[in-house]
């Protein structure tokens, strides 16, 4: 699975590198700020793809003495850096577009720009689909962020493509910087979404409600052996999940029996949440009227039934 994530990130790097070269050439030839904006956007996508490549490799390293909980948060760090880079790109695009509007810059040779944008739309659509597929299968935050970048790139490239076609048909050159500003606003929205998701796990947000519900449901399914539970705390680091809780056991249960209950519970939890690392704290039940405690009571177990006397 680690090899799959690294290979997918490498495909994204190669694709972005090729598109950057094409867009820079087309932007210089045509003088279209929208194409240059897309070139900058793709350049940041390349940086993001490289960060994702090294992020997933770092995150997949096994736990060690210095990082006993693993390296999963490298994926969140990767996503946060990518979001910041996207914000910077959007600000630059808006600045350049406003300059073009003020100075009424001309565009030319739009056929080349239209062709490059079409290639960009097709290539990024194919690569982003693969990124999302692998990200879902491996629960990789870094690959998901990279896929989101390329999905945004598809939309912006399509917008630039339509804008260049309209400029060629109508001669309204102001459409070029106006579309560039529109592209920048879309980029800002994508950056915000990535930053919110990536940064949230850095500060140890809990697991989603549906996953916490899964944990509670599995524990409740073992209530015939448990007196209750409390103190559930969860957090996420990349694709890794961590949870800890207190299990209330019948007070007369032996250590060996309590251990078997915990093992069975952990197996059930990991079958539903494979990347979950769970820590269980066992404590005795304090309810004097607990029926489970009565069942495990040594006195009840050893108490002999009275013999029936012959009539």
From TrEMBL:
It is found in: Membrane. Its main location: membrane. InterPro entries: Cation_efflux, Cation_efflux_CTD, Cation_efflux_CTD_sf, Cation_efflux_TM, Cation_efflux_TMD_sf, CDF_Transporter. Keywords: Membrane, Transmembrane, Transmembrane helix, Transport. Residues 207-285 form the Cation efflux protein cytoplasmic domain. It is a multi-pass membrane protein. Residues 11-202 form the Cation efflux protein transmembrane domain. This is Cation diffusion facilitator family transporter. It comes from Candidatus Dehalogenimonas loeffleri. The lineage of its organism: Bacteria, Bacillati, Chloroflexota, Dehalococcoidia, Dehalococcoidales.
